[in-house]
Amino acid sequence: MKTILSGCIATLVLSFASTSLAGPPCAGSYPSWGRACYGSVEITARSIAWRAQFSNCKASPYEVIASDLQGEKPFVAYRFKKRSKACLYEVMEIAKQGGDHWAAIGYRSVEDYNQRHDDPGSSDYCPLGPMPSQSCNL
What we know:
- There is one protein chain.
- The chain is of the alpha+beta class and 138 residues long.
- It contains two helices and nine strands.
- A five-stranded antiparallel sheet has the order 5-6-7-8-9. Strands 1-2-3-4 form a four-stranded antiparallel sheet, with no helix packed on it.
- β5 and β6 form a beta hairpin.
- The chain is globular and about 35 Å long.
């Protein structure tokens, strides 16, 4: 009985540890380029930031409002909980564009994201450097 109880406790501890070590979706620092997009996207366990020529979204706590990393066009949508004054967006989506290339896509509000998520011409878009798919985990 003592062995079974010890095994159950060990399993519980390992499952909680692996969950907490998983990290945020698409964690990392990714350069963006282009005339208006030169800058970077940074995602950590506690904050997101998006710096570009036209918008400066300083590090902010976030919540994941939508994600599908298993579909044909994987993506994760983050909502900035505290936007800096120079940040034009409430929502930043990281979406796969093909190969190992992804893009940061900005939406001015959650409502805008919900209504126009599938319309590529309705948002501001910046290509990101290569992002291996294994860095995106939910």
